[in-house]
Amino acid sequence: MAEPKKQSFLGGAAVLAGAALVVKLIGAAYKIPLNNILGAVGKTYFNTAYYIYNVLLTISTAGLPLAISRLTSQAYAQGRENQKRKLFRVALRMFFVLGLAGSLFMFTRAGWLAARLNNPMARLPVKALAPAVFCVCLLACMRGYTQGQGNMTPTAASQILEAMCKVFIGLPCAWYVIHLGFGLDAGAAGAILGVTVGTVLSMCFLIFYLSRHRSRGLSSDIPDSGGAILKSILVIGVPITLSNSAMSIINIVDTTVVMGRLQAGLHFTEEQAAALNGQYGFAMDMINMVVAFAYPVTMSLLPTASAALARHDTAEVDRIVSTAFRVIVVLALPAGIGLSALSTPIMRVILPAQQSAALAAGPHLRILGIACVLIFLMILTNAILQTYGRELIPIFTVVAGGVTKVTMNYFLVGTPEINIKGAPISTLCCYTVIVVLNLIFVWVYSPEKPRYAALFLKPLAASALMGGAVWAVYGFASRLFGGGVTFGQNALCTFLAIGVGGVVYGVLVIALGVLRADDLRAVPHGKTLIRILRLR
């Protein structure tokens, strides 16, 4: 069977964004009932297994799939079929070894790993999740290979399949195991079984897909040696992995500093410090949920821009990068400003059973809403620099931001008048440092210099007007409905304000010409949207 048609940059991004939305909705259908089944103690066992799992995955899959995607797209653009096939074989062997080693380590040392996190009862969930490391490593390799050919559909389908298994296998297993009278650790292991089965089925799906869509055409190109290919993967992938790992490590150090300053510096008890840090964590969870939609754009950007660079088509690279900037800015600015304008009402909606914590988390989200815009831009500019072969730069900019964050937290959180309110301030400053440095380096290394004023001014104006409309509508509606005191009244006012804000922003984006016809032409049903919106 012939290979599927290569998708455009925005076409691929749209496919991944749609999948991300579906996966997020399925994830909510999984996590909310799971929390009720396991309770706080069982969820701790579940989370402990995931912490270990995520560390192993970051080491093995954070940057290497992007390297495969980039190298595959270059070979694809140059018509080097033999190079592309050999690249996949070499990468598959490497990921097989990494995944097997990770799974064996996690399974055989489950008790030791759980004890190191001061949670020895998490041993069973750790063991249940261990096989997923092997499967996800192979999944990452196959996804990077298909993305490198401009085809995002297999990745999207496998992600949805993986998420569905959590709901339809993990939840029933958790409930049944606990219903039989086993402990919460066994219940958490049952829930994680759905994750493991999901990775196995997703891996089988991609193996079947690749076998059905394998290119069998003859090619005369001579591929590089296996050693040279492996070196290329590591040269590109390891710096990206270090960049991603740096932020994770900095966040761990940052949490330690915040908790330490609250206790040692301000003499809060451990429970009081945990409660304050948890309020900040609630706001950060909201930000992390939103910024997940930046990744479809960057995952589609890397292979398409890399292919254009391989053809020495600088005009096409400039077009792709400019489009990526416009799409990210159009998404990020209204999301961030909207979260800031409705910070406390939104927190009250998503924390109905913890209204006091929601009120405390609202001011944090007001600051982090602006940081949300910067996180979007950090993710995009990191991807652009990696596309240009400047993989080391994001490591240094992330470390610079991290040092800023940790230092500011030490002084701000340790100040009695500021305490935990210093955490979102330091986060905002952290991402400001990273983004400013990244934008400078993107301008320096871009073949065609990006026009930042043209990219940012109109979306910023539209988002600011939208933010004002949202704030005004919520205030007016809350007064009509009795001040928005009850949960139901607050939810109604919040959703009304969001709806009006969406309409206002949509009208302004069209009126100000923020999006162009070229930006939507490659999106599924884009021509219909262009005709309806009368874009040029």
Please tag this protein with its features.
single chain, 536 residues, mainly alpha, 3 domains, 83% helix, 0% strand
Secondary structure class reads mainly alpha
Q: Using only CA atoms, what is the Rg?
A: 24 Å
Helix content class: over 70%
> Mind describing the biggest β-sheet?
none
- Calculate the terminal CA-CA distance, rounded to whole Å: 38 Å
Order of helices and strands: HHHHHHHHHHHHHHHHHHH
Detail the poorly predicted runs: none
Mean pLDDT: 81
Tally of individual domains? 3
Number of helices: 19
Q: Roughly what fraction of the amino acids lie in strands?
A: under 5%
**Count of β-strands:** 0
Shape: globular
Provide a descriptive summary of the structure in words.
The chain is mainly alpha-helical and 536 residues long. It folds into three domains: 6-216, no CATH class; 238-450, no CATH class; 452-536, no CATH class. It is 83% helix and 0% strand. The protein has helices at 9-61, 64-77, 81-108, 110-116, 123-148, 153-179, 184-212, 226-265, 270-291, 295-310, 314-341, 343-350, 355-387, 392-413, 422-445, 452-480, 487-511, 517-521, 526-533. Helix 1 (9-61) packs across helix 6, helix 1 crosses helix 8 (226-265) and helix 11 (314-341) packs parallel to helix 16. It is globular and about 75 Å long. The mean pLDDT is 81.
